[in-house]
Amino acid sequence: MEKNLSLMVLSILLTFFIPVKADFGDADLPIETINKGSQTFHDAFCLEVQKKCRVVFQGDAMWIEGQGGIKLNQFISYRSEIKRPFFYGRGFYNFITYKSKNGDDKEALFIFINNEAQYKFMRKLRSWIDQ
User: 131 by DSSP, 3-state: which?
Assistant: First the structure.
C-alpha cells in the first residue's frame, strides 16, 4: 500500500516537470502560421522529373509539404525556363533563389509539366511575392 502511494505521488510530481505534448505534438504548426489565411497546394516535381512534391503557400510562408520551406523575407528572386524533359514534351522549370537560415544563397527547382498547373503556380507565386 505504501509503495503504491509513493508511486502515485511520484507520478503526480513528474507531470509538473516533464513537458507534455498536446494535440498533434511535434506535428503542430505554430499558431501564427495557422492564423494567416488559407493554404494553396501545387503538385510539382522537385529538382527532377519523377520526384513528386507538393508546394504549399500560406501567409508569408512557402514550403514543401513534409519537408521545409521559407518565409517571404528569405525570398531573393525567381526565374523560369521552358525545357523539354525526357518523355514529357515541354516542362516549366521554376527556379526560386532564397537566403537560407544560415545566410547562404540557395536555389530550389520546381518543375511543372501541365500548362494549367504552371499558370496556377505562377499566379500564386506572384501574389505571394506582392503581399
Answer: coil
